[in-house]
Design brief:
single chain; about 325 residues; alpha/beta; TIM Barrel; two-stranded antiparallel ribbon; 12 helices; about 40% helix; about 15% strand
């Protein structure tokens, strides 16, 4: 049966089957609004960045990519009005996300506000997530098509647990899929899965992001066997994990029958204040959104990846994540 759920994008809704080849974990602009105002970054020029982003997405479109999910959420400088200017200048379909990016503690305005806290009342995270999904982000008509949450080496701290609980509520009320940033070295995806399972989130609606940072096949199989998708979503990010390892582990999982549980991407950005262009040019020159199309997929094809496999990894599986079945 064809999927009928319509996915919100920066330029209107599309049917799930119209998404095409999809990069499911990327960023357009990662910024730091307070720093950007008080200590502007010398490599950031807004109009030039918008033009560069539109040109990059046009080049990706010519390489066969049709949809990019922008997982830049609050905490990473999300500005949908700025990205909407990019979306208006490219044929690429862009999808926005809601969520919150904090690895241990929330900022004071959130940390002290909510049920049983200093400023008692409803959880503003729930209000934020549901508003982004249902009404639009920051007063725009752009609605979120994915929920992004994070836990890192510190695990699921009390504040991070609040973010996960808010994400679970938003998922249960809207069906919007959840993706994570996980710490593969500490097998952090397992803690994330337990948290979501306890909160009533079906694990097949969750992508455990950055799973491809791990070579531990036992860990990755455990995640996939529980139902989640594995994000092999950092190709080109050599300063974290070499691509040859990612490829070897990916092929081992495909051989073991996990084709239906894997999605591919880069976690790259057109501009990131965290890792600015001059730094990337020296330390991660291949960390770009074109690496799957121009370098990784040709290597995988030589190693036996079929066109049907490629269709599953880059078209069918992202469609299943974003649209549900």
């Amino acid at each position: 049966m064809p999927l009928v759920r319509r996915i919100p994008t920066f330029t209107g809704e599309v049917a799930a089957h119209e998404l095409g080849t999809t990069l499911i974990h990327e960023h357009v602009f990662v910024t730091s609004p307070d720093l950007d105002r008080d200590l502007p970054h010398p490599e950031w020029h807004e109009e030039a960045a918008i033009e560069a982003a539109a040109a990059e997405f046009e080049r990706l479109f010519d390489l066969g990519i049709r949809t990019v999910v922008d997982l830049t959420v609050p905490g990473l400088g999300r500005d949908v009005a700025r990205v909407a200017k990019v979306a208006a200048r490219t044929r690429m379909t862009l999808i926005a996300a809601t969520g919150y990016y904090a690895d241990q503690v929330l900022p004071p305005a959130l940390r002290l506000t909510g049920p049983g806290l200093l400023v008692d009342g409803p959880d503003p995270l729930v209000e934020l997530f549901l508003g982004d999904i249902r009404r639009g982000i920051a007063g725009t008509s752009v609605r979120a098509g994915m929920i992004k949450v994070l836990s890192d080496s510190a695990g699921i701290t009390p504040d991070i647990a609040r973010v996960f609980r808010a994400a679970a509520i938003a998922h249960r009320e809207t069906g919007t899929p959840i993706t994570t940033h996980s710490h593969a070295a500490s097998r952090g995806g397992l803690m994330q899965q337990k948290m979501f399972a306890d909160l009533g989130v079906p694990l097949d609606r969750v992508v455990i992001g950055h799973s491809g940072d791990s070579d531990d096949l036992g860990y990755l199989r455990e995640l996939a066997d529980a139902g989640s998708f594995l994000g092999f979503d950092r190709f080109g990010m050599a300063h974290v994990h070499p691509d040859e390892n990612r490829i070897r582990t990916l092929l081992a999982l495909l051989d073991a029958g996990y084709l239906d549980r894997i999605v591919l991407s880069h976690d790259a950005a057109v501009f990131s204040r965290v890792t600015p262009p001059s730094w990337r040019a020296v330390h991660a020159p291949e960390w770009r959104m074109d690496q799957l199309a121009t370098r990784i997929l040709p290597l995988l094809r030589k190693l036996g990846l079929t066109s049907a496999d490629e269709q599953r990894l880059l078209v069918d599986n992202p469609r299943r994540v974003l649209g549900g079945e």
